[in-house]
Amino acid sequence: MIKFLDLRKVTDLHGAEIEEAVMRTVKSGWYLLGEETNAFEREYAAYIGTRHAVGCANGLDALTLILRAYMEMGLMHTGDEIIVPSNTYIASILAISRNGLVPVLAEPDPTTCQISSDEIEKNITPKTKGVMIVHLYGRCAYTDRIGEICASNNLKLIEDNAQAHGCIFHGKRTGSLGDAAGHSFYPGKNLGALGDGGAVTTDDTTLADTIRALANYGSQKKYIFKYKGINSRLDEIQAAVLRAKLPHLDDDNFRRKEIARKYMEGITNPAIKIPEIKDWDSNVFHVFPVFTDHRDQLQNYLSEHDIQTLIHYPIPPHRQECYKEWSAKSFPISERLHATELSLPISPCLTSEEADTVISTLNRWGWN
User: pTM here?
Assistant: First the structure.
């Protein structure tokens, strides 16, 4: 069986360092808001290229805290609009609506699957206060045009960097391209913990300080509460694990690119569409998506040949029950992507032989 993602093997790649980090933390007797978290925040900020990184409990909280902090700073207010891709994972949208802000869905460019700058511009209204781009599949969603649109309209640019740790755009890493970025360290991410974890990166000191307080019950000083905050903290063990894995992230991403290049060059089945890649630095291949009109049949075929796949994502956000107020809306590009996407196995521990098996199996598939 070729697993979609074998987390045990991924962990084993750096197992000795992870074990040492965990035991060091366990023996320290300090498990929250300690030196492991402080050190990881410094190291991750340096890696991303921002002045600040603030650890939190997960990626959803990271995005939620950014928007909540902007509201506490008086830069956003209930009912303000945030433009967000219509084909993203639900967390991007939940972070907006959880704050009493209004998600405005914008269609992606069908050739990149990333939010379209034209669609962003078309959806700007007097109530628009920000744009949230999502580096979906590990591919950079930022463009110079998006930066110009946000700057000329005085909009905050927020990055959902949950899937793109280490991705580069013109020499800068995603997570440093906008005003603030949310990161997820869910175990399956390119930089994954052994449980949930997240962080915010930003150059804005006031924003970072506000987020740090909000994530700690609203407290900047023990037992003194400036905000009605939440409890969202990156624990010491997860921080230590992330510190152990961070130095290997670029090498792990390089291996993902090697597998992706094999797929790009080897898959020749005309019934399977592969996204065009022009800039390999701007993609860390958290997911390798292919598209076909017969997605479910292809997934069943691969399963019969002991190849696991996943769908990212089977139901678009505007068709989810939790957002039933959008059920009458139509986003045809997103609907098409959600109906045809299938993700192939890709990870730093996938062998070349396994990748070759995936390729040959795909090329033998025939749809009648």
Answer: 0.97
